[in-house]
Amino acid sequence: MMNTTRPVNASLHALALLILVCCSAVTQAAEIRVIAGNGEAGFADGTADARFNKPIRLAPFGTGRILVADISNHAIRSVTLEGEVQTLAGGPGKQGHKDGPAAEAGFDSPHGVAVSHGGEIIVADAASHTIRLFESADDGYQVTTLAGVPGQSGLRDGPAAEALFNSPHGVIWESNDSILVVDIGNAAIRRIKDGMVTTVGSAATSKMVMPIDMMPAEDGSYLIADAGIQKILRWSPGEEGVILSPETGLAMPHGVDDDAAGNVYVAEIRGARITQLAEKKAAQLVAGTGVDGPGPDQLDKPAGVLVHDGYLWIADLNNHRISVVPIESIANSKD
Predict the structure, then answer these.
(1) Are 333 and 294 in contact (CB under 8 A)?
(2) Could you give the CA distance from residue 117 to residue 196 in angstroms, rounded to a whole number?
(3) Residue pair 23/247 in contact by the 8 Å Cβ criterion
């Protein structure tokens, strides 16, 4: 294991920065459990030998199982709570844009991923500027391009096959089966419905500057991690948005989700920590130390969070790991 010792002054500085930026009460972080990945970049399925190369976004995929967008492996993969990793599509030798059976499909830096109630999978394929769709087939999944023009970036609404995106980073299914896309290069939220793409949120109509992630909230609104204003927004289409995060902001919020009690969890990619935001309470440290590293209590560029099956799942980008923290232990760590 790498030596993670820091000089005393540097450690004190990191602690001071953690308290200042988070505006948090002094609490004990919950214990992090690594379930997949060993800290080294690579590409391998299985359990103990599984490898990732910058896992960046997560989505529920059944009981005790999630989907992972493995961005530098250009792959979509699943992980169970027991640590079993399986590749659904893509891989480091398949970088590019190719539709067809999942075993043959190619992706280019897939970023966002989401699953419908019917089991369809949607992927924001950032470098190809397209939105990809997985549909069940006899031999697995069939992958098609749902919207966007491969290799062409821009901002254009209209028929899905002609619409243009600019590095789409996040996707979610709405309750009416339409799809919202976090289009970071255009600083916009786009909607795909009935074969048409429209822009439903932008810097011109809301407080967002650089939306980078979005998740549906328990109250029916949407939570947006905005890397431009360094804050979390609660937003609904057609509305301006309400800022939730502390007055001092966050250290590059990159991932966001909430639990059934309405507590909001934020992956601070430049803060090396996961922070919890709750109404009328100071921000709380959930996981990480505020210093990037491979240690058992550290995170290195945490990029995504997901509340699923009683756990907070974490995409630990530069540690190439998927980790979990029991939601119950988060509450206990504040007692």
Answers:
(1) no
(2) 21
(3) yes
